[in-house]
Amino acid sequence: MIFPRRVALALMSALTMLLVPGVASADVAGEEPAGGAAIGEIVLATGGALLLTTLLLALAIAHRSGRTTLLARAGAAAERRMGMPGWAALPGILSALALVVALLGMYWDISMHIDDGRDAGPLANPAHYLILAGLFGCFVAGVLAMVMPTERPGPSAVRITRDWHAPLGGVLLTACAAFSLSGFPLDDFWHRLFGQDVTLWGPTHLMLIGGAALTLVGRAVLMVEGVRARRAAPETARPGPEPKLLAVQHAALIGGFLIGLSTFQAEFDFGVPQFRFLFQPVLIALAAGIALVTARLWAGRGGALVAVALFIAIRGLVALIVGPVLGQTTPHLPLYIVEAVLVELVALKMTTRRPLAFGAVAGALIGTVGLAAEWGWSHVWMPLPWPTALLPEAALLGFVTAVAAGVVGGFIGRALSAEGERRPLPRPHAAVPAFAALAVAAVVGYGLIQTPDPGISARVTLEEAGGGPERMVNATVAVDPPSAASDKEWLTATSWQGGGFAVDRLERAPDGTWRTTRPIPVHGEWKSLIRLHGGDSLQAVPVYLPEDRAIPAKEVPAASSFTREFVDDKLILQREAKDAAPWLSVAGYGVVLAIALSLLALLAWGLTRMEKTAGRRSPERRPPASPKRTTQRPAVAAR
């Protein structure tokens, strides 16, 4: 079968567009860029993208035309280890390794930005290489899954050309990885239009981490297709994996999905969130509801516990490497242990044959008992313990999110575990997952509403702490009016981007003022500020900000005593941001949102297709035309 030239050209153009940033402007000499990459780095990135794309497509074309047996032999070796066809086994191994690399790179990158601020350039940050290598590895895995089968891999396969049917999981994996990779060039465009957004939740940053997390859905679909293909051809295939081993693989894969969903919590894990505190319990409920319900339905008994065990092992290892080993700020993590136990207990008391109802009940317990356990854990090992001021808002929204997430997890688990005997959902019930997704979107939309409280000021008195050339001070803060600082989510002194990071929760003195519990830095490149969060208001007062000629911004000195108004803390934490025309912001956010919704719709369609094709056999079709020249062995090519 000849690999179509138009398909090759389309893939090359698409991948080049994903990896190549936009046209650059000159940076301020001697300063970290505050508005996009330098021209020289764009040239290097472009050349690297073209080279990698050319090599990948050359390999794909050679395999499809029969001019190489490299992929066939590698697939056969992976098949012997995984017990499923090579087109599912090899991409599965590659994508798993790639995601671990990307995960380490992501947390290392976030920690470096918290400790040191902006990069000297995209190619000057070693963590970027790990992220890019990991995401590109996922893209390669998806492309290989699409091109490796020489026959139709199953009834859920997607027709590409007359004689080429790609596994659905390969298509989804490729789409998710491409979505994630597109965040790199779009991030550069975004910085040029709107300035540096030193927050994890910038739109293009969410594309990077969201696409990477969703590749696990494509990987799960690919595994299901591989197992189904093996069972459909027992007379020519080797024995598949043992059921218990397969269940462990399922649970481990969903454990990776739990890791991916939990990356959205990273700002809270580090202790410098730039959005409302209620998001942390909401995001924990979302990740636990979707991933743990899916794990129990797909992997069976103990699946949720195995998923959490893998989560703790991998995230714990990453925290150890990023913190003590690499010397950066250590990321914290939720436990999910109680939530996993709750899911397993629900499965013992009610049938999992009604996955949506099972997910809703499990979600209800996650949103109550599970969040209560995470509340306690936050006071053991979280940089910002959960205060009572979060009640009742976070408890209510966390409960709603957990129930909705459990229903979504029931939908995913049902699709992955469908074996043909299960009938499709009745039409009224089929809309339930969609309404659950809308409920999650509504909670997120509500949480994004922020309204600064006007008329609040802080009278700050600084007391020198120790000698030496590097100035450290203790701060006493009098908030006016005093009631503005009572029963708030946080009142902290935050110092970052000066070669480290520190967050200090202020203690109330008998005279009604608030005091730091340890000295804060007010020298060099440090940025120190007092942050106040109550309700839907996030505000801050700068204590010390250095001069930044690249923005440009003047120094805010740390006088021994001063009075300053609280302002939207985004203006301080993200002072590299640029003012842009409202229509440009709407267009930028609209484009990113449209792309994200399209990807989610594709995944929903893919999961529905998996359920509908369960139990079917691939339709008979005539053999493909013989390639011009091939050296493949018939036994390998038939797999």
Count of the domains: 3
Shape: globular
How would you sum up the major sheet? 6 strands, antiparallel
Helix content: 55-70%
* Gap from first CA to last CA: 15 Å
What number is the mean pLDDT?
Answer: 87
- How many alpha or pi helices? 20
Specify the oligomeric state.
single chain
Q: Which parts are unreliable, with pLDDT below 50 for 5 consecutive residues or more?
A: 8-30, 621-639
Number of strand elements = 13
Which structural category do the helix and sheet elements fall into? alpha+beta
Give the amount of beta strand, in percent.
5-15%
Radius of gyration: 26 Å
Essential attributes:
about 650 residues; alpha+beta; Immunoglobulin-like; six-stranded antiparallel β-sheet; five-stranded antiparallel β-sheet; globular; disordered C terminus
Tell me what you see in this structure.
The chain is an alpha+beta fold and 639 residues long. It folds into 3 domains: 1-241 and 579-639, no CATH class; 248-417, no CATH class; 457-573, Immunoglobulin-like, CATH 2.60.40. Helix content is 56%, strand content 10%. It has helices at residues 5-19, 39-64, 70-82, 86-116, 126-147, 168-181, 183-194, 203-232, 243-262, 266-270, 279-299, 303-325, 337-349, 355-381, 393-417, 427-430, 432-447, 570-573, 582-612, 634-637, and strands spanning 158-161, 164-166, 457-464, 472-480, 490-496, 501-505, 507-508, 514-515, 520-521, 527-534, 537-544, 561-565, 567-568. The strands form 3 sheets. Strands 3, 4, 7, 8, 9 and 12 form a 6-stranded antiparallel beta sheet that branches. A hairpin with a 7-residue loop joins strand 3 and strand 4. Helix 11 (279-299) packs across helix 14 (355-381) and helix 14 (355-381) crosses helix 15 (393-417). It is globular and about 80 Å long.
